[in-house]
Amino acid sequence: MRIKLTIILIISFVLTLGSTISSAQFVSPGKLTNSHKELSSITKCVACHTLGKGIPDTACKSCHKKLMAQLKENKGFHVKVSGKCINCHTEHKGEDFNIMPIDNNKFNHALTGFALEDKHKILCRNCHKKEKTFIGLTNECLSCHTDVHQKTLPECLKCHNFKGWKSLQFNHDGFSKFKLTGKHTEVKCESCHPEQILERKIIKADKVNKMLKFKPLKYDSCDSCHKSIHKENMKENACSSCHTTQGWKEQTFDHGNPGLSDFKLEGSHAKA
Known about the structure:
The chain is 20% helix and 2% strand. By secondary structure, the chain is an all-alpha fold. It has a two-stranded antiparallel sheet. The longest helix has 14 residues, at 2-15.
């Protein structure tokens, strides 16, 4: 009881000196960090301190709204942290004191929900470029990498992985509506997907200045890619009715099919 009374008397005495930074230091155990220096006035002590209760977490949460938004979405490193904020982020140890005691060389990034693998094992400052904060980034590829496909493809990790952009794992049958069969499996990608020059403003990704065009492409009919060698007019979709992807010589033409021919072979004509 005497201690509380003494603290109250000291604060009352200091308040009579004015709400200046110098008067605040009269009762302060040390200077605040530069991050919190705007709270150095004696009248602002109660913004963090509650008399007789120390510093409650609610005081920290009332200011650090970006962090609270992450916690609400169950994202980020602090989701897995227990204990009071002040246990890790101490104050009154000087203006240049590092209030975020993180060892960049030993920090386990997997605790944030995003493990650093292969090419992502880089210096923290390469991604976290804002001073004195590590929040604000997402794990979406395009938040860091340039979209060289110019919004034509949906998901980066369907084709690429963390080993490098050139380490492709594209499954044409699984990811595309056009399944490759027969001779189509032997064709090089660029035979169907022409190269396109990228706009100068997006040439950032590993010095890439051209890219294969994946969408939009026409593939509804054979003549989208193949030139017809038949001089006469063929009925619609006649190609697939006679030929297969095993090769053009694999003919399965049925003269009696009215969808292919108007002349049915009968009698001697059938033997011709």
